[in-house]
Specification:
Rossmann fold, 6 strands, 8 helices, alpha/beta, three-stranded mixed sheet
């Protein structure tokens, strides 16, 4: 089985020559996960710092940051030269260990212990991050992730996280 970094590098190479406008078109139609707006607005209102730590692309992470107010975005950066993708990823690839490292970085910046962090993920490359977080939640995850996470959300939107961490209905927007 090919590792995440090698697989990502191969897949990104196939994008060489693609016009950056295609990314903009995809970004404009990026669907939000059910419950994403509710969970982010509630957590921000309650003073939480929230971030995206993704093996995907920061181009889309920054769109979500603008839409939902994320404090941090860590994802893979596509190299774009003269409006075209080069087929290369810039900087460190955000893989499983990279996700755990970014979680530690955010905690340190915010003056938090890892025990005070919450991470949500769905794939095997999220396991290092989920295991380091004070609370690691499998979200609509593969069975291997559900077995190893401290908690799981399988039948609700992302806003199910609010109930899992003890946010009461009266603390929700519009209550």
């Amino acid at each position: 089985e090919i590792d995440f970094s090698a697989s990502l590098t191969r897949r990104v190479a196939l994008l060489a020559g693609l016009d950056e406008a295609v990314l903009a078109e995809i970004g404009a139609r990026l669907p939000l996960m059910d419950g994403a707006e509710k969970v982010t607005s509630t957590l921000k209102r309650l003073g939480y710092k929230i971030g995206i730590i993704s093996g995907g692309f920061d181009y889309f992470g920054h769109i979500l940051q603008e839409t939902l107010g994320f404090d941090y975005v860590y994802a893979n950066r596509l190299e774009i030269v003269d409006g075209k993708l080069t087929g290369r990823v810039l900087g460190e690839i955000i893989d499983g260990p990279g996700k755990a490292a970014r979680l530690r970085e955010i905690a340190a910046k915010e003056g938090l212990s890892l025990a005070q962090t919450i991470a949500v993920g769905d794939g095997a490359n999220d396991l290092p991050m989920l295991s380091e977080a004070g609370l690691g939640i499998a979200f609509h995850a593969k069975p291997v992730v559900r077995r190893q996470a401290q908690g799981a959300i399988s039948d609700m939107g992302l806003d199910g996280l609010l109930y899992l961490i003890g946010i009461r209905d009266r603390e929700l927007p519009g209550s």
